[in-house]
């Protein structure tokens, strides 16, 4: 079988996030909300995967798969656990992580905020506070000053549109929305704050306010990073389902795109790339969403490997800049589904690239099963299992499947660098 060629400098990676795998992120807003009563979080993150401790061995796993990129987040709450107090130890740690990537031939892809922020920031108004853009820009500046010269590209914010996507698709029941508001109100009372906020538990009535706040923060971060290193490729990553329509469903599909994605795709016109994070295809009919026949993933939608290519195509059509697939995966406890899904999705992506859509790289979510936010440890998306007692990582068959498809493209079908 003949496959399209990809550029020799195409990034093949895995994506991770600090709070979800490092463990004991005790100065963070999410940690505080996990321990608030009531809490929307199914369980506390606790030690997560002990990734903060086992980072070197985890990088060995990434390199062992034949990859050339590693996406991770720098936990702001570790770097600035109290307002104005910067942890030298945390900055040293993340610098070692960057250098560890380079030693293993992995391009460091850094996320400045993967949902989480310091507890003090959340209690002081979170992202909607007047000084939030300046505070976030300070964090981005200190990180870029420390090791920005050695990273390959950077993401300012991770999925600032996630809550809009969940609400537009009715992914959470009404009782979850009520519990979210009760949890945030309890956190505000506990901290003596007028309001407690966090990036991935936003009440439905505050979506527009947070979108405006995230936009200001993104722009401030971009300015700060570019002032340090003008040539560093930088963008924002958004959650983007592949929205398709059967006859009569076009108006509903277009309305969903306008409400959930288009603001950020237009904003990305001022960036170097748009990060796309895709997990499913949504089919729109004249009367609402349509669920086609077929095997389903853990999110309840039909497994569709071509969804990534469709999402990437739309993102580039609107944004007009190259795409970086910062996350793509499948929620399932059946790893045979994942092992079949990855090569099929990558082949469809390669065909989309061959058709003319510029894509800089692909990062699979995620290296290992980890803390999946409000779902706790009940959702599996990793290429490796993690023993919750010993924290030993064990590769699943999907790890080999991903390594095989990367080898096929890197070794057999690479072409020269981009011009």
Describe it.
It is built from 15 helices and 15 strands. It has helices spanning 18-21, 29-34, 55-64, 76-79, 88-103, 119-123, 132-147, 162-168, 174-191, 207-228, 250-260, 262-267, 307-319, 335-354, 397-412, and strands at residues 6-7, 11-15, 69-73, 107-113, 153-158, 234-239, 242-245, 273-278, 281-285, 288-290, 323-328, 359-365, 384-386, 393-395, 414-415. The strands form 4 sheets. An 8-stranded parallel barrel has the order 2-3-4-5-6-8-11-12, surrounded by 4 helices. A 3-stranded mixed beta sheet has the order 7-9-10. A two-stranded parallel ribbon has the order 1-15. With 419 residues, it is α/β, with parallel strands linked by helices. It is globular and about 55 Å long.
Q: Biggest sheet: strands, sense, closure?
A: 8 strands, parallel, barrel
Choose one word for the global shape: globular
Poorly predicted parts: 414-419
Q: What is the total tally of β strands?
A: 15
Average pLDDT reading = 96
Taking the alpha carbons of the first and last residues, their distance comes to 27 Å
- How would you classify the quaternary structure? single chain
Biggest sheet strand order reads: 2-3-4-5-6-8-11-12
Structural class: alpha/beta
| Percent helix range | 40-55%
Number of helices: 15
Strand content: 15-25%
| Rg calculated over all Cα atoms | 20 Å
Order of helices and strands: EEHHHEHHEHHEHHHEEHHEEEHEHEEEHE
């Amino acid at each position: 079988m003949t496959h399209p060629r990809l550029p020799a400098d195409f990034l093949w990676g895995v994506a991770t996030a600090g709070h979800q795998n490092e463990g004991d992120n005790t100065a963070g807003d999410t940690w505080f909300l996990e321990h608030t009563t009531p809490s929307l979080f199914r369980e506390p993150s606790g030690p997560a995967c002990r990734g903060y401790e086992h980072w070197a061995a985890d990088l060995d796993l990434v390199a062992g798969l034949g990859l050339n990129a590693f996406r991770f987040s720098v936990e702001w709450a570790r770097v600035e656990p109290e307002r104005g107090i910067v942890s030298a130890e945390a900055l040293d740690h993340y610098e070692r992580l960057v250098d560890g990537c380079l030693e293993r031939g992995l391009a460091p892809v850094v996320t400045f905020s993967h949902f989480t922020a310091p507890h003090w920031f959340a209690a002081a108004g979170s992202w909607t506070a007047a000084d939030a853009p300046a505070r976030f820009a300070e964090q981005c500046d200190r990180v870029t000053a420390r090791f920005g010269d050695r990273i390959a590209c950077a993401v300012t914010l991770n999925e600032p549109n996630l809550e809009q996507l969940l609400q537009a698709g009715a992914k959470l029941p009404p009782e979850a929305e009520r519990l979210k508001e009760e949890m945030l109100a309890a956190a505000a009372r506990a901290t003596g704050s007028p309001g407690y906020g966090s990036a991935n538990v936003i009440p439905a009535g505050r979506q527009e306010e947070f979108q405006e706040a995230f936009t200001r923060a993104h722009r401030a971060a971009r300015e700060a990073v570019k002032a340090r290193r003008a040539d560093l490729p930088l963008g924002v990553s958004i959650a983007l389902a592949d929205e398709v329509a059967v006859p009569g469903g076009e108006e509903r599909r277009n309305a969903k795109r306008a409400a959930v994605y288009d603001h950020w795709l237009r904003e990305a016109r001022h960036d170097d790339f748009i990060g796309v994070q895709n997990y499913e295809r949504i089919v729109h009919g004249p009367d609402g969403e349509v669920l086609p026949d077929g095997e389903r993933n853990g999110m309840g939608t039909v497994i569709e490997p071509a969804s990534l290519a469709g999402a990437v195509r739309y993102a580039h059509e609107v944004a007009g800049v190259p795409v970086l697939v910062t996350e793509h995966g499948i929620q399932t406890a059946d790893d045979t589904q994942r092992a079949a899904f990855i090569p099929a999705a990558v082949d469809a992506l390669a065909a989309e690239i061959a058709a003319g859509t510029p894509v800089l790289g692909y990062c699979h979510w995620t290296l290992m099963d980890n803390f999946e936010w409000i779902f706790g440890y009940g959702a599996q998306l990793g290429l490796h299992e993690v023993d919750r007692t010993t924290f030993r990582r064990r590769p699943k068959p999907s790890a080999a499947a991903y390594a095989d498809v990367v080898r096929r493209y890197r070794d057999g079908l690479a072409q020269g660098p981009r011009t």
